[in-house]
Design a protein that fits this description.
The protein has 14 helices and 17 strands. The protein has about 425 residues and is an alpha/beta fold. The chain folds into two domains: about 250 residues, Type I PLP-dependent aspartate aminotransferase-like (Major domain) (Aspartate Aminotransferase, domain 2), CATH 3.40.640.10; about 110 residues, Aspartate Aminotransferase, domain 1 (Alpha-Beta Complex). It has a seven-stranded mixed beta sheet, with helices on both faces. β11 and β12 form a beta hairpin. α2 runs antiparallel to α10 and α11 packs parallel to α14. The protein is globular, with a radius of gyration of 22 Å.
Length: about 425
């Protein structure tokens, strides 16, 4: 079974979206008798056939446990698994594969840093700095570690447009700040945070930085060395890869000094009842049998995205964002929530007289899949004084025609419930 797919690109450099859509089997189906219009990509993207084939091919021809066997299948599986790690390293510009830790997703990446890096270093009076824009996965682990250590959590405020207040951030940095944990792109609003500016200021004060890149890695060109961040986490399922696989990038000097987060197989060199000698990086943080197929699928997804070109992806998605913003703004009673000038292709909105959950239900009957709720960002919803929003999030395989279907379905919702 082939694990490679030629990615169609229009001669002028723009993406051939109609050809690309044929790479995604799920997009050909009908929902409630209507062609599927999938606009929930911030929650989870779809997978191209080449990723499905890569995972299937591994299970059909190459499955064995990695790192531990001398037989041919184990060596082949190890080569595929470690090959995927090298693809990740290249994709984000890390210096070494020793800095690439496979985890279950961004949530596990943040928890690993909270428990292995922050917890041993924190004490009463220390401070962790996060922002009002954060996903719960970049809030709750820090609350937990603060409860465990006596440290406190400080929050960078946001503006009505959905941007972070940089001056307030600077005032919150103190000699007690031990870490800045910041989203790269807001999942709830689509705001692209100018993280370079925040990192530079934090580094000027000697504060290490973790970035939640779950919404950035699929859509923006990420270079962790250029960013100068210390930790960067992202998830495979948001970038055309499998679920249950993600990456923590960590600066090697920091990872080397951190204790393991979990104990078990493959994170050790030697075990006696008296003591254990831990394995080298990155394996020190990868206890137990890893998600081998997931890593291989993530590697295939990276190949696919790189063949498309991150710049072309960003351009296609920005065109959809501008078109959708203009079309939605013309619907009476619709208010867009989050109007930062620099956004990923995410539009959150409310519709006067219609609850967001009802919007989602009615749109589903029209074949249009969006996300409704608090988007695991309840502090953002509290800031705007709403219990929830409806959120349409676009990927490079979406079209302007699908934006038009979204708008038509919203008119149906207004006629039924508004």
């Amino acid at each position: 079974m082939s694990t490679a797919t030629a990615v169609p690109v229009a001669p002028a450099g723009a993406l051939d979206v109609q050809a690309i859509r044929r790479d995604f089997p799920v997009l050909a189906q009908r929902v409630h008798g209507k062609p599927l219009c999938y606009l929930d990509n911030a929650a989870s993207s779809q997978r191209p056939q080449c990723v499905i084939d890569a995972v299937s091919d591994y299970y059909e021809t190459s499955h064995a446990n990695v790192h531990r066997g001398v037989h041919a299948l184990s060596q082949k599986a190890t080569d595929l698994f470690e090959g995927a790690r090298e693809k990740v390293r290249r994709f984000i510009g890390a210096r070494s594969t020793r800095e690439i830790i496979f985890v279950r997703g961004t949530t596990e990446a943040v928890n690993l840093v909270a428990q292995s890096y922050a917890r041993p270093r924190l004490q009463g009076g220390d401070e962790i700095l996060v922002s009002r824009l954060e996903h719960h996965a970049n809030i709750v682990p820090w609350q937990m570690v603060c409860q465990q250590t006596g440290a406190s959590l400080k929050v960078v405020p946001m503006t009505r447009s959905g941007e972070l207040d940089f001056d307030a951030f600077r005032s919150l940095l103190t000699d007690r700040t031990r870490l800045l944990a910041l989203t790269h792109v807001s999942n709830a609003l689509g705001t692209i945070v100018p993280v370079e500016r925040f990192i530079a200021e934090a580094k000027r004060r000697g504060v290490p930085v973790l970035l939640d890149g779950a919404q950035a890695a699929p859509h923006l060109r990420v270079d962790v060395r250029a960013l100068d961040c210390d930790f960067y986490g992202f998830s495979g399922h948001k970038m055309c890869g499998p679920t249950g696989i993600g990456v923590l990038y960590g600066r090697e000097s920091l990872l080397a000094a951190m204790p393991p987060w979990q104990g078990g197989g493959d994170m050790i060199l030697e075990v006696t009842f008296e003591r254990t000698t831990y394995n080298d990086l990155p394996y020190k943080f990868e206890a137990g049998t890893p998600h081998i197929a997931g890593a291989i699928g993530l590697g295939a997804a990276i190949d696919y995205l790189e063949t498309l070109g991150l710049d072309r992806i960003a351009a296609a998605e920005h065109d959809l964002l501008e078109y959708a913003t203009a079309r939605l703004a013309g619907i009476p009673g619709l208010e867009i929530v989050g109007t930062a000038p620099h956004k990923a292709a995410v539009v959150s909105f409310t519709l006067r007289g219609v609850h967001p959950h009802d919007i989602g239900t009615i749109l589903d009957t029209e074949g249009v899949a969006i996300r409704t709720g608090h988007h695991c960002a309840m502090p953002v919803m509290d800031f705007y004084g709403v219990p929830a929003t409806a959120r349409a999030s676009f990927a490079f395989y979406n079209t302007r025609d699908e934006v038009d279907r979204l708008v038509s379905a919203l008119h149906v919702a207004q006629e039924m419930l508004g």
